[in-house]
Design brief:
This protein has 228 residues and is α/β, with parallel strands linked by helices. The protein has 2 domains: 1-34; 40-227, Aminopeptidase (3-Layer(aba) Sandwich), CATH 3.40.630. Helix content is 47%, strand content 17%. The chain has 7 helices and 6 strands. Strands 2-1-3-6-4-5 form a 6-stranded mixed β-sheet, with helices on both faces. Helix 2 (63-78) packs across helix 7 (197-225). The structure holds zinc ion. Residues 47-48, 54-55, 63, 119 line the site of zinc ion.
Length: 228
Amino acid sequence: MKKQILFVILIIVSICILSAYVNTNEVSTGESYKEPTPILKVVIDAGHGGQDVGAIGDSGQYEKNFTLSVAKKVVNLIEQEPQIQVYMTRADDSFISQESRYRPKYANKLNADLFISIHGNTFSDSNVSGTETFYYHENSQTFAKAIQKHVAEATGFKDRGTTKKDLFVVKDTKMPSALIEVGYLTNPQDESKMWTDDFQNRVSASIVEGIKDYRAELEKQDHGIWFF
Ligand SMILES: [Zn+2]
């Protein structure tokens, strides 16, 4: 009986210490009494690079250049957002081997909050068209859906939805992650749009909108959980 009482006391003390710790952290990171919005660390991954050219589009252009161009535009937009810190797995035509697993490792080491891999799709049938987003872990599904919703709207291509897929960049990353296949570079109509500045600007803005939507959703949930 005595042991049980001691155990209960121990639990109560632990809860008190934990709540004090959480409160202290909130105070120390905020500049005022208003609850601070934490800085979101986002990794933007331009698919392929260097000798890994990715898909070869209908026009003969390489996917690696499409992904880098969109990634740079996304980064430029996020840099205007004070609450989001952005990182790139590659900012030039560097080759990153799959075997190194560098992309997910980089995001994990940074302890990033979100990971977004940008790609252009390919298929033997040039009629196939559309935008889709892949994820792997359950904790990425909501994020993938937020991204897909905005990007599909921006491309105007067929909305192919979100799918769970065993891709190492989304599987090995510990944070919510999504791989976007913006459109099919093998579809001549899609591809001709995909190389335009206007299209890429729209897609980049939609990715940032997806991030913001997801963060707003998280904040709503946080208020429900942290009431002590
Ligand atoms: Zn790709």
